[in-house]
Amino acid sequence: MIGNDIIDLNISLTTSKAGNFRFLKKVFSPKEIECIHESECPNIMLWEFWSMKEAVYKAHQRITGTLRKLNPLAFECSLRSMENAGTVRVGKKFYYTKTEISPNYVHSWVDSAEILRKIYFNKIFSQEDLLKHLALKLSFEADMLRITKDPKNIPSLHIMGIDKIMPFSLSHHGHFTAFVIPLIKS
Amino acid sequence: MNEKEIIIRLKKIVEPYVQRMEGLKNFREETDFLNDLQINSANLVDVVLDVEDEFNIEIDNDSMEGMLTVGDAKNIIEKKLAN
Fold first, then answer.
1. ipTM (interface predicted TM)
2. Are A49 and A98 found together in one domain?
3. CATH architecture of the region B3-82
4. Chain B residues contacting A, CB < 8 Å?
5. pLDDT tens figures, A42-67
6. SS3 A156
7. How many Å lie between the alpha carbon of B26 and the closest alpha carbon of chain A?
8. Tens of pLDDT along A116-152?
9. Domain containing A138: what range?
10. How far apart are CA B44 and CA B67, in angstroms?
11. d(C-alpha A66, C-alpha A74), whole Å
12. Where is the domain boundary, A110, A142, A168?
């Protein structure tokens, strides 16, 4: 299960969404709104929930093949007692997530056993740069790697030569780029 | 309000959220908010709120779900205005 989402707080904290009830009502359940308002940092909590929803949306869409939708209310977040761990319910399905909160970003990803997660701070980050980084991390030559997208815009990493296609989740926001990819088992 | 007018007003609303400016040059019904204009999904909720204000309508969650292209938005606006 692969899905991740990064939020650049230098952009997202410029407006206080936690005080915008119309926004809250379109995105969060009454329970989530309560949790946001009871939090010490309501706006951080809000973006934590949002990134959890987005990360799970990506994983869920990859698994179920459902059409794209703007339906954040269908993804219900709660926090687990472990630090930075959450659960997102979609209908009858539950996904476990993890979130890293730094002063500059919030990064959530669907928690599964063996993944490689990486965050880059960058002003300009081309696909070529990304492939170079990925190649280094995965010990392949950059020209062996291609990022392909299916008609629903879901990306995969294609490793030419050994003809392997891996699920790949990429997220950009502001000055940050993040990805998660399963670790290759040899 | 005719279709053209709706689309012109819609373009004004989305402009501040667009990250891929080229996408605006060819702003038409097929234009996809996320893929062509690279509006991020949190900002797409802002677009929905701005559309509600601009046209004085309420966009329910079922309608919001399907608001992914300029044409989708135009159809929803037309439907709500007719009610």
1. 0.94
2. yes
3. Orthogonal Bundle (1.10)
4. 34-35, 40-42, 44-46, 48-49, 52, 61, 64-68
5. 999 999 999 999 999 999 999 998 88
6. strand
7. 20
8. 999 999 766 788 888 998 899 888 998 999 999 988 8
9. 122-182
10. 9
11. 13
12. A110
